[in-house]
Structure formats: structure tokens, C-alpha cells
Amino acid sequence: MTKEVFLRELARGLQQLPAEEVQRQKAYYAEMLEDMMEDGIPEEDAVAKLGDVSGIVEEILQDTPLPVLVKSKIRPKKGWTVSAVVVAVLGAPLWIPLVLTAALLVFSVFLAMGAVIVAAFAMVFALAVAGLVILFRGVTLFTWGGSYVAFSLGCGLLLLGLTCLSFLGAKYAAAGLWRSGKWLFRAIKGMFIAKEGE
Q1: Averaged over 64-89, what is the pLDDT?
Q2: Which is nearest to 32 in space by CA: 167, 178, 95, 41?
Q3: How far is CA 125 from the centre of its chain?
């Protein structure tokens, strides 16, 4: 594939973005190809080195801020005609509550994920504090006898051991929720990325 074909396909894949962003991406990849060709790499090899155009387009669209994608997705293909404005205004009592509900639902899901992560680490912190307090209290119980001291020290060490295990669990749960949140965000963003032929 030649440089011109690559840049043309890139622009076609990014057509839902604003024109200045498409030009910026084309200039970036054109300069990258020029640099490789100046280093002695043949044009077609330089293009092949960049990879598949559709993969590059997907990566650029995923890196594009969500508001830009939403704005480009809701914009009518032929511009805002009188009939499109009338339909948008008359449909507003229906689509505004639906959009707000969907946005609040997504926000509440992300908020709940964050709350679970915070709660997991708060539990770890509480176990650690309880273990340290019981250990300290066990040391101060020498006047009560050896059995109280041994019991308190054993409970404190048990809680500190549980703290270590629960920290690992909280860490893996937080990492899993973080990955799930990123996947969900990419899935939501993907709904606003125009597919081939749209």
C-alpha cells in the first residue's frame, strides 16, 4: 500500500471526527512515513510497518474524548435541516429524560465500583488497626496473667495476618473492578464510534 492510499483510507476511517482533527492525524502519519522513508525504508515497507489502517483508526477513535464522539454521532449526516430541528424539539420530552437516565445509570455504576474499592481498603485498614490495638492491649495486660496476654497477642497476630490476606484480596478486587470499569467505558465509547459504511 502506498502512502497516499494509506492516508486516504485513514481519512475515510476518521470521517466522523472534526475536519481539523482528521487533518492533524493525516499530517502526523504523513510525517511519520516521511521520516521512515528518509531513513531508507521503502514507501510500502514504511506503510506496512505502521500496521493495519483499521487498527490505527480504532485506536485513534478510542483515544478521542467521549464528548467529541457524541457530538459527531448525534449530528445529522446532511446537517441540521428544519425537519431535523423540528423532530429534535418535538422528541425532546422523550429523549432528554432517556439520555439523562442512561447517563445517571452509567455514573451510578462507576460510583458503585469506586465505593466497593474504597470499602474493601477501609476493611483492610480496620483490621490492621484492630490487630495493632489488641497487640498493644495484650502487652499492657501483664497484671492480669499470662493467659490474657497470650490470648490478646494471639488475636492481634491473627488480625494482622488477616489484614495481609485481605489486603491481597482487596488489591486483586480493585484491579478487577478497574479493568471492568475501563472495559465498560470503552464499550460505551464504542457505541459512539461510527462503523464501516455509516
Answers
A1: 71
A2: 41
A3: 27
